[in-house]
Amino acid sequence: MILLEGLLVDLVPYGRAFQAREHAWYNNESMFWASMGERELLTRARMEQQRREEAEADQPETGVTFGARTKDGTLIGLFGINFLSCYHRVANLGAMINEPAYWGGGYGTDALLLVVDYAFDWLDMRRLWLDTMSSNARVLRQMQKVGFTPEARLRSVALADGQWNDEVVFGLMRDEWPGRDTMIARLGLRAR
């Protein structure tokens, strides 16, 4: 079942097929970038324990998680709308292309455009934000390319490979978003 159809990726329900890939994903280079420099190795047993604890906590969902898959069906990551506040109409975005072979090919940008469009048009959010560490050059370029504005810089927050990094926070307001179709044209994103 496709929830959001893109040019390079489709965003689908994040289910068991994606969960089966988590052990590999959470123990590769993608997690280093997503966790702002942490290199914690997670065992399958620890991951299962965390799932059980989350299920037992019975806390209300505060977001939406999508699995990202290529047009040929390859599972490549996850994209989420987190810490969603319906009252304030703000949300945090989470994005991970967990398969390094798909980095730099436009897959993450395509998925991000889908998530942003969904958050503004379907969920009626008025503001989105996300953060990354200052050494994550790929994400820093991507955020500005798709229209996010750097809003804050928290100094020396993340220790990554022995070097202190700033946390860079980006924001995008609904009235700044020209729409997915305009962004696709502006970026020259094409189906393969």
Structure description:
The chain is α+β, with helices and mostly antiparallel strands and 192 residues long. Helices cover 32% and strands 33% of the residues. The chain is built from 6 helices and 8 strands. It has helices spanning 16-25, 29-34, 44-57, 107-121, 137-145, 180-187, and strands at residues 4-5, 9-13, 64-70, 75-85, 90-97, 127-133, 149-160, 163-173. The chain has an 8-stranded mixed β-sheet with strand order 1-2-3-4-5-6-8-7, with helices on both faces. The model has no long low-confidence stretch (mean pLDDT 93).
What would a concise description of this structure say?
The chain is α+β, with helices and mostly antiparallel strands and 192 residues long.
Topology:
Blueprint: E1 4-5, E2 9-13, H1 16-25, H2 29-34, H3 44-57, E3 64-70, E4 75-85, E5 90-97, H4 107-121, E6 127-133, H5 137-145, E7 149-160, E8 163-173, H6 180-187
Parallel strand pairs: 5-6
Antiparallel strand pairs: 1-2, 2-3, 3-4, 4-5, 6-8, 7-8
Q: Beta-strand percentage? A: 25-35%
Give me the secondary-structure category: alpha+beta
Kindly identify the CATH topology.
Aminopeptidase
In DSSP terms (H or I, runs of 4 or more residues), the helix count works out at 6
Give the end-to-end Cα distance, rounded to a whole number of Å: 21 Å
Q: Round the Cα radius of gyration to an integer and report it.
A: 16 Å
CATH class category name: Alpha Beta
What strand order characterises the main sheet?
1-2-3-4-5-6-8-7
Count the domains. 1
